[in-house]
Amino acid sequence: MTTQDVIQVQGLEKSYKDLRVLRGVDFTVARGSIFALLGSNGAGKTTVVKILSTLLKAETGTARVHGYDVATQAADVRESISLTGQFAAVDEILTGRENLVLVARLRHLKNPGKIANDLLERFSLTDAGARKASTYSGGMRRRLDIAMSLIGSPPVIFLDEPTTGLDPQARIEVWQAVRELADHGTTVLLTTQYLDEAEQLADRIAILHQGRIIVNGTLAELKQLLPPAKVEYIEKQPTLEDVFLALVGADGKDGDAGKHHIAVTSEGPR
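The structure assignment produced for this chain is given below.
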């Protein structure tokens, strides 16, 4: 651990009756970095986030967030963090701007309107700011949710599986928003079960399996755990994501492939 470690976790253990979910979890997260906690469903990722955000108490071990102990200084921890769960917590009756203004007022901040306008611009939602959140796409709704989490400028943000249920295009929108967080100096702890998400976003990746961190390092360090790759010449076929983005475009408009009629027969595309 160093003074640059904003999150410090040692020996966390947690059980639900006879089920041991965490069996001694250890990791640190550096200031201003994106740290991915990667694991399958039931691995304990959400339990870790709940402990770090003071929603649960660990049975054993210690954790500090932004210099505060999560068990004995819970109020200070809560003032230092923001938590975005697996589903966007926006009020669909309100417009995007009204959602932001409401949170700013609840936090007793000055100039809530300016705060809302700045965040709408930062997350490319200005044109949709006057529309009800119920009309937003999944990606837009999630970006608004993250924007709401940033009101008050918390130094640490927890994103618990932020792209669950989103289509490929919406996932890319959320990835861009997460990168923006780190670019502005926010420390991000991201839980995910998607390998490509961790690969795309994280400065460091920890794999949580059966309640323990089994490996923790940069993507390059993790790749070194496997034997050196063999060089083979193969025909690379486009992935389904390549096809999707080529057809619809990254911005939702027709891509290059979408400008041409593609006919598919039993003999293949023509």
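Interim note for the steering committee: The longest helix spans residues 168-183. The domain at 5-90+136-229 is CATH 3.40.50.300 (Rossmann fold).
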